[in-house]
Each structure stands twice: as structure tokens, then as C-alpha cells.
Design goal:
Radius of gyration: 53 Å
Number of helices: 11
Number of strands: 14
Strand order of the largest sheet: 2-1-6
Distance between the termini: 184 Å
Helix content: 40-55%
Shape: rod-shaped
Structural class: alpha+beta
């Protein structure tokens, strides 16, 4: 019986030893497996990093017949510039007018290429998945190719075109000049024509809005080329013939200065000098757009200016003290001219805005 108990204890102890040993082995194996999996994962990632580390396009990538395999992004962009330029080489207009022309190149258009979008997609080819899948994709791209096409969208820069075209129009447009005339002061002495008439001048007008609208419409249709700026001749509203029909004498008044003291040499000099200053004066009509402009009012006193010996006036009798007496003064006799002119204005039915009666009867 005692021997049996001893055997059973031995078996129990052995079982415990085996259990602890198995547990230790199991823990060791488990730890070893975890380390192995980590190592495998690290290797996968390293392989993937190696496959992705080359920041170049895969062999077989072709953009608009340009192979960019092995190129970096910047190198590919530079290689594709000629393709972009070829797409827009016909974009633009030539504006023709007279014997001149102005070229509106691509600087006057907004141009958008899909180049960056294409390259952004192509650079990401074969960059996802397990290393074996990535390698498979790389081989497939190299053998079968991946093809892309550069396209562009062209829209006109309306504001820039409009500014340039209308600036040209400003250089071209010229207002017509009406026929005119000016008095001939000597006509009162030599019986020549009272007025000298000048022919009007033709003007020119261009139509920049038409040219702009045509460019915008044709740009939508990708129909680039020549555009003609329409220019027309404009004519004066008044011709010499019309002026000669409308320019007439409105009134006439005369007074004598050749009798008695009125014909004294100095006084006669002053009268002729005053008539010469008044003769040929043009008085413009009232300008409603500028009420402060008083040029439509004629003043004899302002026209003759100060009467001084230094200005060429001679001493001649002039009335003072209300006509009670006369004294020699520079410009004596000019009141005769102003009084005669006043009568002519009254006969012409023009408005008198200010007057001073002469101090004595003249004429």
C-alpha cells in the first residue's frame, strides 16, 4: 500500500513538471510567432516603400504621344509644354482696319489645361496593394501602356479684349467739323466779302462693339483668325452752302461823324479805332449748360478797353458834367460808336441788358 502511494505521488509530480514545461514551451513558441509576424510585416512595408520610393512615372505612361516613363513630375511638365503650346498655336485674333492690324494673342484669353490632373493620376499608378500586386501592375503598365491626352479650355478675357479694342477705336474716331465763317473786318473799307467761309471736315467713326461681339462669338466656336473693324465716314451737319443761305444781315444803322467838330482828326482817329475793335466781333449764343459763362453778353466798354494815350488813343473832346461842357480826353468820340451800335442792336431786336445814356446828343 505504501509503495502504491509512492508511485502515485511520483506520477503526480511528473505530470506537474510536464505541464509546467509544456506551458513554458507554449509561451516561448507564442512569443516567437509574434516576433515572426512582425518581421514579415516589416518586410512587406519595406518592399512597398522600396516600390514607391521612386518618385517617377511608371514605364509605359504616355501623355499625348510623349512617353514620360522614368521622368519626375517637373520633368514631365517641362516635356509636355510643346504639346500645350501646339494646342493653342491658332488661338487669337488679328484686328484689321485701314492698312493696319493689331494682334490679340493668347495673352487675351484664359487657357486651362488638364495636364496637372493627368499627371496627378498617372503618378499614383501602381501605388496601392501588396508588393506582389504592385509589381504585377508595374509590369502590366510597362507592357500594355497607360495613355492620356492633354486637352485645353479656352475662354476670352472679355474685359481685356474690350479695353484694347475700344482704345483702338479712340485712336480712329474723329468728330466731323462743321463749315464755319469769320467776319472780314476790312470789308467795310474795301467792299470785299463780309465773311470768309471755311469748308467743314469729314470725320470717322468705328464700331468696336461689333468687333468685340464677333470675337467673343467666334471664340466659343474655336474659329480664330481675322476680324475687320468697321469704319465709316461721318459728315458735317453744316456746309458752306447752308451757311451762306442762313447768314444774313439782321439790321443796319448808320450815323454821320464827318461834319463840324465831329470830323476833327483826333476824334476821327478814335472813332475809326473803336470801329476797328468792334468790327468782326463774334458773340456766341447763351449756353444753358454753363449759366456762369457770360461770353454771350457783348459790352462795348469791355471790347474797347481802357482808353489811354499809351494804347494809341488820341486826345479829342469828350462830354463831361452831363454834357454841360467837353474836355479833351484819350478816346474822345467813342460814345458816338457805342450809340450807333446801340441803335443797330435795337433794330436787330436783340436784348439790351445794360446801358447808360450819353450825356449829350450825338450823331
Amino acid at each position: 500500500m505504501k509503495r502504491l502511494i509512492t508511485i502515485l505521488l511520483s506520477l503526480a509530480i511528473s505530470a506537474a513538471v510536464i505541464y509546467f514545461a509544456a506551458g513554458a514551451v507554449s509561451r516561448t513558441y507564442s512569443e516567437g510567432m509574434t516576433s515572426y509576424e512582425e518581421n514579415i510585416e516589416r518586410g512587406v512595408e519595406a518592399k512597398r516603400a522600396e516600390l514607391l520610393s521612386a518618385s517617377t512615372f511608371r514605364n509605359g505612361v504616355v501623355v499625348s504621344d510623349i512617353s514620360i516613363g522614368g521622368m519626375t513630375y517637373d520633368e514631365a511638365l517641362a516635356a509636355l509644354v510643346p504639346v500645350e503650346q501646339a494646342l493653342v498655336e491658332d488661338v487669337g485674333f488679328t484686328l484689321r482696319f485701314d492698312d493696319e492690324e493689331r494682334v490679340f494673342s493668347t495673352d487675351y484669353f484664359n487657357i486651362r489645361y488638364n495636364t496637372n490632373k493627368i499627371l496627378g493620376e498617372a503618378i499614383l499608378l501602381a501605388t496601392e496593394g501588396e508588393p506582389e500586386l504592385i509589381e504585377q501592375q508595374i509590369d502590366e503598365i510597362a507592357s500594355e501602356g497607360r495613355y492620356y491626352t492633354i486637352e485645353c479650355e479656352v475662354t476670352p478675357n472679355r474685359a481685356k479684349l474690350e479695353e484694347a479694342i475700344f482704345a483702338i477705336a479712340e485712336e480712329i474716331d474723329v468728330e466731323p467739323v462743321n463749315a464755319g465763317f469769320y467776319p472780314n473786318p476790312d470789308s467795310v473799307y474795301d467792299n470785299s466779302d463780309r465773311f470768309t467761309f471755311t469748308e467743314g471736315e469729314n470725320g470717322r467713326i468705328s464700331y468696336p462693339q461689333e468687333a468685340l461681339d464677333e470675337m467673343l462669338q467666334r471664340a466659343e466656336e474655336n474659329d480664330f483668325g481675322d476680324v475687320t473693324l468697321r469704319i465709316e465716314t461721318t459728315y458735317p451737319e453744316l456746309t458752306v452752302a447752308q451757311l451762306k443761305e442762313t447768314v444774313v444781315m439782321r439790321s443796319h444803322y448808320e450815323s454821320s461823324y464827318a461834319s463840324g467838330s465831329y470830323g476833327a482828326a483826333n476824334r476821327l482817329h478814335n472813332v475809326k479805332k473803336a470801329c476797328g475793335l468792334v468790327n468782326g466781333t463774334c458773340v456766341p449764343p447763351f449756353n444753358p449748360d454753363d449759366p456762369d459763362d457770360k461770353s454771350y453778353i457783348f459790352s462795348t466798354n469791355d471790347c474797347l478797353g481802357y482808353r489811354t494815350l499809351e494804347d494809341g488813343w488820341l486826345l479829342a473832346p469828350g462830354f463831361v458834367d452831363g454834357g454841360a461842357r467837353s474836355v479833351d480826353s484819350p478816346g474822345g468820340g467813342v460814345c458816338h460808336v457805342s450809340s450807333t451800335l446801340y441803335d443797330a442792336v435795337i433794330c436787330a431786336d436783340l436784348k439790351i441788358v445794360y446801358r447808360i445814356n450819353p450825356s449829350s446828343h450825338v450823331g
